[in-house]
């Protein structure tokens, strides 16, 4: 586990560096405010009324769900790929079955038009 | 507690931070200068110190001072905490993943082997995907925290694009992992040593050409650069950091340049043989036509460091060339490319690699 001590040290260094940059922003910059500056920027015209956090297209939600499905599958593939040479033909066939089921699902979502953007 | 490892890694940390931050600063100038060359302009050449200009090389320093001393502005309608957290979350992960990238060959110091990466952990690539994926939160929180309609939509667009291409990014490298049989980045490079037919280096690019071809666009999309810069597109449709100014916006920009270096370094390690120089062994060059050129070990190591940086510099330059050459994709084209072409091709690459590896056994 001692190999992971440098990881923690570097995490501290990186967070310290970004924190330092943020601190410089907050303490060095001047602060001059006026009502016009405090409006939301919408390409120069007067901002549209209402809160920004409204509903947005459901497609993005679908993409997120698909990402979870495929990314977990890739997480399964990493240990398999590392040990692939030891597993040999058995490992290959196992993963081919897994990939075939998954690509069938991929084919299904394409056919159902989950990724069609209007 | 092994103090030797800790002190060595501290030295490497300082070196990595200095190299990466210095190079990223320089890249802001290189990109402007390259665009000027390609558009027949002069580019940034005015910044000077006591009248000394050196083709505008002081421009990054001028930019840095300008950004730091700009007004610190958080919109009153925004969520102050998330608005401040977003640039940190965009910047910290892309610098943190350099933990496992070897920027040079292993060295023998005081009878111990010191690898080129900060932490000597055997989960290299997994670590990169685990922490590199965190950068998505930077763009989402920037959009959400700003509470601006354009920024929110752009943040969601950015997250959607980044997670889509993360799938291709992860899948395109599985074939390479199958060949090297390891996730450790130093061992990956060592696994690429040797030659075919006595002259062709056994680099990942020649073993996994399709994977390299899929990895590069996916990585550029992950980095949100042209031709995949829909989340940002500073000039036309508004990006997720519309409500950011000064160094807060600068941190997003800086994160992009650090990620260029990171993508170039990762591509170099996985596909371009890392620090390996063709025909160079530990004792000198062994030319395929039978000649030999003996070199002392320290010159060999120097050459290997130089090779690493030349390869990284080439990949960075290539990405900058792409940026100033190609037009932007439309959003549906982007999604179609990611899900309908890159993903099945990456899967095909994996299957072909598996079949070939089993047949060759």
Question: Structural class, from helix and strand content of chain B?
Answer: mainly alpha
Unreliable stretches covering 5 or more consecutive residues of chain B: none
The CATH topology annotation of chain A reads as Methane Monooxygenase Hydroxylase, Chain G, domain 1
* Order of helical and strand elements of chain A: HHH
Report the C-alpha radius of gyration of chain B, rounded.
22 Å
- In whole angstroms, the N-to-C terminal distance of chain A is 51 Å
The major pleated sheet of chain A works out as:
none
Taken as a percent bin, the fraction of beta residues of chain A is under 5%
Task: Characterise the protein shown here.
The complex is a heterodimer of chains A (118) and B (361). Chain A is mainly alpha-helical and 118 residues long. Chain A has one domain: Methane Monooxygenase Hydroxylase, Chain G, domain 1 (Up-down Bundle). Chain A has helices spanning 5-28, 59-82, 84-111. The relative contact order of chain A is 0.06. Chain B is mainly alpha-helical and 361 residues long. Chain B is built from 13 helices and 7 strands. Chain B has a 3-stranded antiparallel β-sheet, with no helix packed on it. Chain B has a two-stranded antiparallel ribbon with strand order 1-2. In chain B, a hairpin with a 3-residue loop joins strand 3 and strand 4. The interface between A and B is large, with 66 and 82 residues.
Compact overview of the structure:
Chain A is mainly alpha-helical. Chain A has a single domain, classed as Methane Monooxygenase Hydroxylase, Chain G, domain 1 (Up-down Bundle), CATH 1.20.58. Chain A has three helices and no strands.
């Amino acid at each position: 586990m001692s190999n992971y001590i440098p990881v923690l040290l570097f995490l501290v260094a990186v967070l310290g560096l970004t924190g330092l940059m943020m601190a410089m922003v907050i303490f060095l910059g001047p602060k001059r405010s006026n009502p016009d500056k405090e409006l939301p920027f919408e390409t120069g015209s007067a901002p549209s009324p209402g809160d920004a956090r409204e509903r947005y297209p459901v497609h993005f939600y679908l993409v997120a769900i698909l990402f979870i499905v495929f990314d977990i599958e890739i997480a399964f593939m990493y240990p398999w790929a590392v040990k692939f040479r030891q597993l040999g033909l058995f490992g290959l066939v196992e993963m081919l079955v897994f990939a075939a089921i998954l690509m069938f699902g991929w084919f299904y979502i394409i056919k159902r038009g989950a990724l069609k953007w209007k | 507690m092994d103090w030797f490892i800790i002190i060595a890694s501290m030295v490497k940390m300082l070196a990595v931070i200095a190299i990466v931050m210095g190079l990223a600063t320089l890249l802001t100038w290189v990109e402007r200068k390259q665009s000027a060359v390609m558009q027949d302009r002069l580019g940034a050449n005015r910044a000077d110190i006591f009248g000394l200009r050196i083709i505008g090389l002081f421009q990054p320093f001028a930019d840095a001072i300008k950004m730091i001393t700009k007004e610190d502005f958080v919109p009153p309608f925004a969520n102050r905490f998330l608005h401040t957290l977003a640039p940190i979350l965009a910047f910290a992960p892309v610098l943190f993943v350099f933990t496992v990238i070897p920027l040079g060959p292993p060295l023998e110091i005081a009878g111990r082997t010191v690898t080129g990466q900060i932490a000597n952990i055997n989960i290299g690539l997994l670590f990169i995907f685990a922490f590199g994926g965190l950068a998505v939160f930077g763009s989402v929180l920037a959009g959400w925290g700003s509470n601006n309609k354009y920024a929110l939509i752009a943040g969601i667009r950015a997250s959607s694009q980044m997670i889509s291409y993360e799938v291709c990014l992860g899948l395109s490298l599985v074939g390479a992992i199958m060949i090297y049989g390891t996730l450790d980045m130093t061992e990956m490079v060592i696994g690429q040593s040797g030659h075919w037919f006595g002259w062709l280096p056994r680099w990942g690019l020649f073993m996994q050409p399709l994977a390299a071809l899929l990895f590069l666009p996916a990585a550029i999309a992950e980095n949100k650069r042209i031709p995949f810069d829909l989340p940002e597109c500073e000039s036309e449709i508004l990006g997720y950091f519309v409500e950011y100014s000064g160094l807060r916006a600068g941190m997003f920009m800086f994160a992009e340049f650090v990620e260029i270096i990171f993508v170039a370094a990762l591509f170099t390690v996985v596909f371009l043989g890392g620090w390996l120089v063709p025909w160079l062994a530990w004792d000198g060059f062994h030319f395929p036509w039978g000649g030999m050129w003996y070199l002392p070990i320290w010159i060999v190591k120097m050459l290997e460091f130089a090779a690493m940086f030349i390869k990284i510099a080439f990949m960075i330059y290539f990405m900058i060339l792409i940026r100033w050459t190609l037009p932007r994709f439309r959003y549906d084209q982007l999604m179609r490319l990611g899900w309908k072409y890159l993903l099945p091709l990456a899967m095909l690459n994996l299957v072909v690699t598996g079949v070939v590896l089993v047949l060759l056994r």
